[in-house]
Structures are given as C-alpha cells and as structure tokens.
Specification:
- Helix 2 runs parallel beside helix 3 and helix 3 packs parallel to helix 4.
- The chain folds into two domains: about 120 residues, Rossmann fold, CATH 3.40.50.2300; about 100 residues, Arc Repressor Mutant, subunit A (Orthogonal Bundle), CATH 1.10.10.
- It contains eight helices and twelve strands.
- With about 220 residues, it is an alpha/beta fold.
C-alpha cells in the first residue's frame, strides 16, 4: 500500500494501522514523492491526501491513471467538495472525510481491493439484487425485474462498482456516452426509476444512496 499525506501524525497513524492489518506500506509526503514511489514499486492500492504541497491529489490520481489501475482512496477535509469530485472524475475510487475512523478506512480499502480483483463471473449479486450479464436478466429477492436497456446498463455499472462513489459525469459517460456528460436530469430520472423497481421503500433508499454534491453509491444494506 502507498500512503500519501503531508501531515506526519496522519501518515504515522494510517501506516501503523495498515501494517497492523497485515499490509506492507510505503509512504510519501508530497505528490512528487508519491509518483516516484509508485513508479519504483507499483502499489496494490493508494491512500492519498487530496491537498498536498506541489502536485495535488487530483494531479497524482490523473498521472497514476495513465499507467496504473490500482485503487485510489482519497483523504479529504470537510468542504473540499469541488476538489473531491474533480479527483473522483480523474480516476479516484472512493474517499474518506477527515477526521475519519480507521475501521471505516480499512473497510473502504477492502472493498476497493475486491472491486479491483476480476472474478470473471457473468452473474453479479449485491444483497437481494442479482444481475445475469450473459442473459441480460435481473431479479430482486427472486422476483424478475423488467428493465429498459439504459436501466440495465446503469444497474450493471452500479453493481460492478459496489460500494464505490460514482460521480454524475462518470455515470453519464459510462451509460449514455461522453456527449451527455452534463445532462444530469437523465441520471436523476433513471436513478428514480431504478429505485422504484429495486428499493422496498423508494423514499428511503437502502441500495442506491445519494452522496450530496458528488454522485451515487450502490451498497449491500446488510453488509
């Protein structure tokens, strides 16, 4: 794991807890150091502060994505919404807001590593949701779901990224194409339609969660 933060106490605390959880850890205090370290010893995942001296977390993420698919988890302060979304659009996988609990960070890291490990399975399952990619069929708690092509694609993207925050532009590009990157009303309509089909109570969603100012996240409500 590569941990990048310019605050020594956070760097020490995160590194110590990761080592205690069985991970090997490299550290860096600047964006330039992070990129040099990653190039010399490619990490399995990166825990990256959003605000760094020199290259920002967004810059580091963008450069990493030119050659690495390693999950990137951002550490961001409250109020960094615009910078956070920019970093997510640059390729970051998730974020944790400071101050954070180490258990939450470790859980986000485990989820990101699971997503990065291809299973080759044509069937996706999250809670009571089941999506058969080969047959293009969907069900919830054993009940067949009738989905439009765009609903199916949107649900596939959500389920393939279980637990990951997906920004509005990234979802629009993935489902509708790059020309729709700022057509957020499409996304709101289709998320609302999906919730009516998969949520026991669409007014209180448990699967597709809204992250205000950022995007959506699909989770297993029982995990």
């Amino acid at each position: 794991m590569l941990v990048v933060d310019d605050e020594p106490q956070i760097l020490r605390a995160v590194s110590a807890n990761l080592r205690g959880a069985g991970y090997e850890v490299e550290t860096a205090a600047t964006g330039e150091e992070a990129l040099a370290s990653a190039a010399m010893r490619p990490p399995d995942a990166v825990i990256l502060d959003l605000v760094l001296p020199g290259k920002s977390g967004t810059d580091v993420t963008r450069e990493l994505r030119e050659w690495s698919k390693a999950p990137v988890i951002l550490l961001s302060a409250v109020g960094d919404e615009r910078d956070k979304v920019a970093a997510l659009d640059a390729g970051a996988d998730d974020y944790v807001t400071k101050p954070f609990g180490i258990d939450e960070l470790l859980a986000r890291l485990r989820a990101a590593l699971r997503r990065a490990t291809p299973t080759g399975e044509p069937v996706l399952e999250v809670g009571d949701l089941r999506l058969d990619l080969e047959k293009r069929s969907a069900s919830f708690a054993g009940r067949h779901l009738t989905l439009t092509p765009h609903e199916f694609t949107l649900l596939r993207v959500f389920m393939q990224n279980e637990g990951k925050l997906l920004t509005h532009p990234s979802l629009l590009r993935e489902v509708w194409g790059p020309q729709y990157h700022d057509e957020s009303h499409y996304l709101h309509v289709y998320v609302s339609q999906l919730r009516r089909k998969i949520e026991p109570d669409p007014a209180r969603p448990r699967y597709i969660l809204t992250e205000p100012g950022a995007g959506y996240r699909l989770v297993d409500p029982e995990s």
